[in-house]
């Protein structure tokens, strides 16, 4: 999103090499913990035993037994549907692990990326977890392009770090290795993402009237299809997503990454302002799975260890 609702909105420019990703093939969802009664007659149920942070969960969510998570479920390997229609990926696996700590189920609900924050404000979702970059503009509800206040903002629990990459058809890079090389060419992006913002910003710098032709789509997969068909010269996505597309599309024969990734910044789990109890519960659950090793297992499974965080920060984006 841009400042109002973008994914991975532009943070302070920082060049980062998160490292090569070797995407794991296994796509099994982490199972929720057993919540059946222990049958011991004790007032402490097995739910409490297996969910040590259940007391931190707001009562209305306890009553429902689930946390509704807004997510753009078309962004592999972060979140997507497998061949059987199951929601899989980094975020769903982490959600399942967090749910075990809190004693509730994380239910992922599909939505277009640029509507997720409004979904939080309208209480359609309890959280938004969709490779969303934590930025000051998002925290304060400011549109980064206009500088105007457009909402109350959200709070973030930061859980991963990633940058942005460009990729082209394999063997047909057309000399593209930097954003400046896109002047006079066409790029396909997902609408409202940091890649979209970067393309617009770079186009404004192009000399001699050679602007970047930008095609924005609802999903990153649609942008990939545009490149594959020859309708664009390049696509830009978050590095984990770009690396996954390069590795898997056409058995690794369709695309290649060009140049270095830029704009490394934290992904955050978004929570509506004022919902401090839930924010702190999610933070505590994330810290717990980092400490007990479950977090490392999940990101290792998906081959994204280079983006790991060592603690759960609130609003750590800039």
Report on this model:
It is built from ten helices and eleven strands. It has helices spanning 46-50, 59-64, 90-102, 116-121, 136-140, 194-203, 220-228, 239-248, 276-292, 294-301, and strands spanning 66-71, 80-81, 87-88, 105-110, 127-128, 154-169, 186-190, 213-217, 234-238, 255-272, 313-314. The strands form three sheets. Strands 6, 7, 8, 9, 10 and 11 form a six-stranded mixed β-sheet that branches. It has a three-stranded parallel β-sheet with strand order 4-1-5. Helix 3 (90-102) packs across helix 9 (276-292) and helix 3 (90-102) packs antiparallel against helix 10. The radius of gyration is 20 Å and the shape is globular. The model is unreliable at 1-47 (pLDDT under 50).
Q: What is the CA-based Rg, rounded?
A: 20 Å
Shape: globular
Count the E strands. Answer: 11
The helix tally amounts to 10
User: What class, by secondary structure content?
Assistant: alpha/beta
* Biggest sheet descriptor: 6 strands, mixed
Low-confidence stretches: 1-47
**SSE order, as H and E?**
HHEEEHEHEHEEHEHEHEHHE
Helix proportion range? 25-40%
The fraction of residues in strands falls at 15-25%
| Ends distance | 15 Å
Q: Kindly state the mean pLDDT as a whole number? A: 86
Oligomerization state: single chain
How do the strands and helices of this protein lay out in sequence?
Layout: H1 46-50, H2 59-64, E1 66-71, E2 80-81, E3 87-88, H3 90-102, E4 105-110, H4 116-121, E5 127-128, H5 136-140, E6 154-169, E7 186-190, H6 194-203, E8 213-217, H7 220-228, E9 234-238, H8 239-248, E10 255-272, H9 276-292, H10 294-301, E11 313-314
Parallel strand pairs: 1-4, 1-5, 7-8, 7-9
Antiparallel strand pairs: 2-3, 6-9, 6-10, 6-11
Helix pairs in contact: 3-9, 3-10
């Amino acid at each position: 999103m841009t400042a109002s609702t973008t994914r991975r909105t532009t943070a302070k420019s920082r060049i980062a090499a998160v490292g090569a990703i070797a995407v794991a093939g296994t796509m099994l969802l982490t199972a929720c913990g057993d919540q059946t009664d222990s049958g011991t007659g004790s007032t402490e149920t097995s739910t409490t035993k297996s969910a040590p942070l259940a007391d931190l969960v707001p009562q209305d969510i306890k009553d429902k037994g689930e946390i509704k998570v807004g997510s753009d479920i078309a962004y592999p390997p972060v979140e997507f549907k497998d061949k059987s229609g199951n929601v899989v990926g980094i975020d769903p696996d982490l959600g399942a692990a967090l749910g075990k700590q809190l004693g509730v189920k994380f239910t992922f609900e599909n939505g277009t990326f640029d509507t997720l924050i409004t979904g939080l404000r309208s209480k359609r979702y309890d959280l938004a977890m969709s490779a969303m970059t934590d930025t000051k503009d998002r925290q304060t509800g400011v549109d980064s392009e206009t500088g105007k206040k457009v909402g109350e903002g959200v709070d973030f629990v930061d859980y991963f770090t990633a940058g942005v990459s460009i990729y082209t058809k394999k063997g047909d890079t057309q000399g593209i290795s930097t954003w400046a090389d896109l002047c006079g060419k066409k790029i396909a992006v997902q609408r409202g993402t940091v890649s979209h913002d970067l393309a617009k910003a770079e186009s404004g710098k192009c000399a001699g009237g050679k602007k970047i032709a930008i095609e924005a789509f609802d999903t990153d997969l649609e942008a990939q299809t545009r490149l594959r068909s020859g309708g664009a010269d390049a696509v830009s996505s978050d590095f984990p997503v770009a690396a996954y597309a390069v590795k898997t599309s056409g058995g690794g024969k369709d695309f290649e990454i060009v140049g270095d990734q830029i704009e490394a910044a934290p992904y955050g789990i978004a929570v509506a302002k004022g919902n401090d109890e839930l924010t702190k519960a999610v933070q505590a659950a994330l810290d717990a799975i980092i400490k007990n090793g479950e977090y490392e297992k999940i990101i290792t499974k998906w081959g994204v260890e280079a983006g790991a965080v060592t603690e759960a920060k609130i609003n750590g984006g800039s």
